[in-house]
Amino acid sequence: MIIKHITNINPVITTDKVIEIFCIADDFCAEYENEIQNHVG
Fold first, then answer.
1. What is the pLDDT of residue 7?
2. What predicted TM-score, i.e. pTM, was given to this entire model?
């Protein structure tokens, strides 16, 4: 029953949401790079 409800949800993926996902990933990568540089050298 729960699976039926989950499969009926159609998330609308807009351009804004895709851009937001890439921005979050970019921010994460920038922070991760800073942390790596602080620990390595």
1. 57
2. 0.60
